[in-house]
Amino acid sequence: MSKYTYLFLPVLFSVAAQLLIKHASLKELRTPIWTLIITGSIFAYLLAFIFYTITLRFFPISIASPVNTILVMVFVVLGGIYVWDEPWGIQRTLGVFLGVASLIILLSSK
């Protein structure tokens, strides 16, 4: 597997976990479906942690951590907008733009 795959997998699982938590928040607490969704979220976070640990073998933490944090933020914002029709405004647009711009700067400085 490519080292860049390892850089992206923690992002994928962290985003999945956060979107599952949002989905669970819309369900009644402690019902079987709520429990299933929360369990899925915990499992996704566990996989994110494992793959992030592997990622740190290939990338310095000064690259891996910002990439992980910013990409999770961008994808969660987009997920909220497209899945739950959350509001999209100038602040979110600017936040996503600046996040992507910071990644471009960070990753091109190698």
- Helix and strand succession? HHHH
Radius of gyration: 15 Å
Unreliably modeled segments: none
Tell me, rounded to a whole number, the average pLDDT. Answer: 95
Largest sheet: none
Count of discrete structural domains? 1
Strand content: under 5%
Which percent range fits the helix content? over 70%
Give the strand tally: 0
Overview of this protein structure:
With 110 residues, the protein is mainly alpha-helical. Helices cover 85% and strands 0% of the residues. The protein has one domain. Helix 1 (3-25) packs antiparallel against helix 2 (32-58), helix 1 (3-25) runs parallel beside helix 3 (61-84) and helix 3 (61-84) runs antiparallel to helix 4 (90-108). The protein is flat and about 50 Å long. The model has no long low-confidence stretch (mean pLDDT 95).
Give a short summary of the structure.
The protein is mainly α and 110 residues long. The protein is built from four helices and no strands.
Topology:
Layout: H1 3-25, H2 32-58, H3 61-84, H4 90-108
Helix pairs in contact: 1-2, 1-3, 3-4
Write out key terms for the chains shown.
4 helices, mainly alpha, 85% helix, 0% strand
